[in-house]
Amino acid sequence: MFGSGLTPRFASPPVDAADPVEVITQEAGIRTSIGQTLRITALVKEDELVNQGAPLARLRDMPHVQFVAPMPGRVARISLQPGRKLSEIVLFRETGGDVVRHDHANATTEPDLRHLMQNAGLWPWLRRRPFGGMPADDERPAAIVVMAVDTRPFAPDPRQALADRHEAFARGLQALTLLTDGPVLVCQQSGPPLFEAGLADGRVRAVACGARHPQGSAGFRIHALAPATIETPVWDIHAEDVAALGDLLTAGVLPMTRLVRVAGAGLRESRLIRTQPGADLRELTHRAVAPGAHMLMSGSPLDGHEAHWLAPRHRQITVLPRQQKGKPPHWFVAALTHSGLPKPVIPTAALTHAFGAALPAVPFVRALSSGDDEMAMKLGVLSLLEEDLGLADYVLGGEAQLAELLRGMLDRIRTEFAA
Question: Where are the beta strands (DSSP E) in 155-203?
């Protein structure tokens, strides 16, 4: 249903200025997304000076895919876990650095476009369904969904991020059609068109979305428009990143700032800023937090996590007052009041709306809770990721832990069905 969904309310002071202010933090950290493990080969050493866009590391199983510096700086720390798994790469900003330029003249064919995106550091901004993470370097999706809408609380408006960048956005959309035989679907709310009709001979199509959450959630849009399966993966990408691709194809430089909203009940004032991926959350909230203990989260209040650096795909920073821990109850009282089994999920209209009426909520939650992989696959679990269930977990009071159950199921399906 077009009008399904909810509008959860969270406290936050208003934004002082409508126009964003650019803030490039003095430190930045490159990390993998939550739940993702990447084995890398470092291309720089600690204390080495690097330019903006310079390659810092490449994937060991996909050597063409590189992580690049979001700003000119000095490599402060390279932290790897056993097996050369990336923990984080930390940079200190250095003024006066140059910007890496790429040869974009020949990126008119699929192989050359892939090579450019992977070398410039844009490939990690793509996300695949099922299972999440970036696509394989040679994967060809059944469709690409471009998210020009975000209905999460406090999310910045993607239309504002695209202001004065419509030519770059159209150029990026045109380029994406080289990577798939299927459609490129642009999800947007009502308003002026974001691109001209007939782009790429009609292979780029606009799809209307509602204003309530989770109508602007990529997983439910994919489930409704082009359901992902093990054999037919689907990609999603933020509209601002598509405009960045358009700029890369014009000037050979990948833009390294994005529109970010800083909000939450732990602030004295909210902010709308443009900052780099991996930005330092402490610096971005400096002098804006209210007195008292607080928690810095990368992401929205529904699906964010406590962090030091802005996560690779996030465009929100949430600051919440930190709850004081009370005295723990006696072990016998805790044993009587906390069962070892998950609490039962009571079907409500709110739960149905939390799934956007895109799939049957109660059978899906039942399949997820019982570990019925085959039934969940029939209902559409392969199109979803943890962030898509953030509203459902919020409606259920966090007791069901649906996002954790979903990740466990997806990992199990990948091992059993996709090996």
Answer: 184-188
- The DSSP letter of residue 344 is P
Contacts of 394 (CB under 8 A, 6+ apart): 8, 302, 354
Q: Which of 171, 67, 57 is nearest to 120 (CA)?
A: 67
State the DSSP H helix or E strand holding residue 169, giving kind and residue range, or none if neither.
helix 166-176
Nearest to 33 by CA among 75, 67, 61: 67
**How many CB atoms lie under 10 A from the CB of residue 119?**
20
Which residues, in sequence order, are CB contacts of 128 under 8 Å at separation 6+? Answer: 134, 135, 139, 141, 228, 233, 234, 235
Q: Are 409 and 376 in contact (CB under 8 A)?
A: yes
At a CB cut-off of 8 Å and minimum separation 6, what does 45 contact?
75, 78
Q: What is the pLDDT of residues 71-122, one digit of tens each?
A: 999 999 999 999 999 999 999 999 888 999 999 988 999 999 999 999 999 9
d(CA 2, CA 18): 29
Q: Residue 107 and residue 246: Cα distance in Å, rounded?
A: 11
By CB atoms closer than 10 A (0-12, 13-18, 19+), residue 375 is: middle
